[in-house]
Structures are given as C-alpha cells and as structure tokens.
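Colleagues,

For the teaching module next term, I've prepared a clean inverse folding example: a structure given as tokens, and then the sequence designed for it. I'd like students to try predicting residues themselves before seeing the answer, so please don't circulate the second half yet.
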C-alpha cells in the first residue's frame, strides 16, 4: 500500500516537473523570451482571447487553435501582425547603418549579382553587398526605394547606406587592389547593403499565379488559408506588402518580369522569384535598383504587368494602408522622402534626387494605390474573419 502511494506521489511530482519544463523550463534553457501580452499560451486582446501557441514553446499536442485573420473589411488582423518578428526593425537598422558608414573594409571580392558588384567584409566579420551601378540612376533607385519602404513601415529591405570606394579613405584603404581589379572609379557613389546569410529562394504563392484567386477576404481565399501555419500566413501578409511596394516604385525586375517572360516560358510563375529571398522570419526584398528612376522611365512598357499584379491583392496590412492614406491626403510623399533621404545620407546631395516628373509619378501612384484600397474596402465589407490553424511556430 505504501509502495502504491509512493509510486503515485512520484508520478504526480514527475508530471508537475514535466509540465513546468515544457512551459517554462525549456524557454529558460534555450534562452527564449516569451513575448509581452502572452498568458498561458493565450494572446490577450481586451476582453477576448484568441488561443495561440507561444512561439517559444514546444507543444506536445498541437491541436487546432483559432486566430483572427481579417478585420475592418480587407485588412490583415492585428492579432496576426503581433506574431511577426521583423528582421530589419528600426533598432537593428540604426545600428547596422551607423557601423557600415565608418567601419573599415578588410576584404573585397566579386559577388552579389552583376559582375561589377562586390561583396565586402568588415573588421567585425559582417558583410555587405556593394552595388556599383552601371549609372547613378540604379544606385539612386536602390537607396530611395529603401527609404521609401521605411516611410511605409515595410521592414523587409536590408539596411542600406551610400559610400564612395575611395582607397585614400580609411574605410577602403585596405582593399585598394580589389577596387582596381573591379575597375571602380573612386568618385563613384555605391550602395552598401547588409548581406544576410542562409537565405533561400521563394516561389510565387499559388493564389497569385495565373488562374489563382488572389489574396482577398473571400470564402475562397479563406478556405485556401485554412489550417496553414502562422509562418505561412505572415509570409502571405508580406507578399501583399511586396505587391503594393513594387507597384509604387514600378519595379519591373521582380514579379513583373516573371509575367513578361510567360510568353517564352509557360512555367515561369512556378519558378523562384527574381530578387526575392526569405529567412525564417519572412521575405527579404533585395536588388530594388530597377524601381523609381529606371522603373518610371520605362513605365509605359511595364504598366500592364504592374496593374495585373496589383489586381491580385485585395487585403492589406493596416499600417501600410494607413501610411498610404496619409501620403495621399497630405500630398507630401516627395517632401517627406527628400527630408528622410537628406537626413540619413551624407552623400544625398551629390547623388541627387528624383526629377520633378518622377516625383509627380510617385505621388500619382500613391493616389492610385489609395483608390485601389478604397475599392477593396467597398467590395469586402463583411469578410470571414476566423479560421483554424494547426501549428503556429514562427
């Protein structure tokens, strides 16, 4: 009898220890932080609670949970946004940019796409892609696209700064021979973009391919997203940002080029996307140099592809459309972009800014995006808003 009681006591005690380990101890052992706002695996939203897995917890029984998907007609829900962990947030960006502007480069080799580009290694071992444009327009497009994305609250672009590869300056003096072998002129302005390891290619979602239903708050889309992981859903949310962003800057060297190439390759949309990679945290928008300056110059040739892509999306991130609305109503996208550009880039005045014609095009495309969002709001006033998720590891 005593043995039975002892056995029962050991069993109960072991269960308690195991429960503690799987809910708290494992987090501590792995050095994981539980996000603020979580309480026993529930996300608190006022009086309501949507059952979610804590992203830092191993769950032994991955039963289905309920997560709010849409809100206010055609917006991704805030309960989905809160699960996202931006790779290039303001804190990370500020630290990297500050270091990249002054830190010495100890090695420079060819890499990062075009043969004229280079891969630089800093004294701390971190790396940056050095983009040496065929002309200044490409470098200008790259840096202005980066700052425009920051204005919109889109944090999928790696931090970027401007520099001059002058071997007489301390930052570049150790790579003089490499600069000469790459045939760079010392007066050229280049962009340094954080190089991120362990990125993989990205396939275009089925919903955005030819014959797909698009991303919108309808029953068809609802059923397609049923039982998807939050990692997948967050990626879809980032895809909607990408579509809006590429339309705004008229970037033809990503999805639009895939559509264009369908006339020669019927499976083009099934292949990995140009200038788009991803990490465990989501999509990474790279090589945006074709946007703005060059993109606006050839807009007439590519606009039909930009419009076709925009029509595939009728659900948006709340923060993104709020900022588009502000730029539409205040009509100050040009002045705000210039202010940010000049404040953060010492070489801004030397590299130059958009022409008056291109600034008009930029404001016009802000207006067109705003009108597209408003049409979607009218079309999808009563969306399906909740569905089951079978796993929410981010």
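(Answer key — instructors only)
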């Amino acid at each position: 009898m005593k043995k039975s009681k002892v056995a029962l006591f050991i069993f109960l005690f072991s269960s308690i220890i195991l429960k503690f380990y799987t809910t708290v101890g494992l987090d501590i052992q792995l050095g994981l932080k539980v996000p603020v706002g979580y309480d026993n695996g529930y996300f608190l939203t006022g009086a309501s609670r949507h059952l979610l897995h804590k992203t830092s917890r191993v769950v032994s029984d991955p039963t289905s949970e309920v997560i709010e998907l849409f809100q206010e007609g055609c917006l991704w829900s805030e309960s989905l946004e809160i699960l996202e962990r931006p790779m290039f947030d303001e804190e990370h960006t500020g630290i990297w940019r500050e270091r990249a502007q002054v830190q010495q480069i100890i090695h420079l080799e060819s890499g990062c796409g075009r043969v004229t580009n280079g891969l630089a290694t800093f004294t701390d071992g971190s790396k940056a892609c050095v983009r040496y444009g065929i002309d200044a327009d490409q470098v200008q497009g790259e840096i202005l696209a980066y700052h425009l994305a920051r204005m919109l609250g889109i944090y999928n672009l790696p931090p970027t700064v401007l520099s001059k590869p002058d071997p007489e300056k301390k930052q570049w003096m150790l790579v003089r021979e490499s600069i000469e072998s790459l045939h760079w002129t010392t007066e050229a302005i280049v962009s340094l973009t954080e190089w991120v390891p362990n990125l993989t290619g990205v396939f275009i979602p089925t919903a955005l391919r030819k014959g797909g239903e698009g991303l919108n708050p309808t029953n068809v889309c609802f059923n397609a997203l049923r039982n998807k992981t939050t990692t997948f859903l967050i990626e879809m949310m980032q895809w909607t940002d990408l579509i809006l962003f590429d339309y705004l800057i008229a970037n033809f060297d990503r999805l639009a080029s895939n559509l264009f190439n369908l006339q020669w390759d019927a499976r083009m949309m099934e292949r990995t996307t140009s200038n788009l990679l991803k990490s465990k945290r989501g999509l990474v928008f790279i090589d945006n140099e074709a946007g703005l300056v060059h993109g606006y110059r050839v807009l007439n040739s590519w606009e039909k592809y930009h419009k076709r892509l925009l029509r595939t999306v009728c659900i948006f991130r709340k923060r993104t459309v709020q900022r588009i609305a502000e730029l539409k109503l205040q009509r100050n996208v040009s002045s705000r972009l210039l202010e940010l550009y000049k404040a953060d880039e010492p070489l801004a005045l030397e590299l130059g800014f958009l022409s008056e014609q291109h600034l008009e095009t930029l404001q016009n495309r802000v207006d067109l995006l705003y009108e597209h969002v408003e049409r979607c709001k009218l079309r999808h006033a009563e969306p399906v808003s909740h569905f089951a998720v079978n796993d929410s590891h981010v």
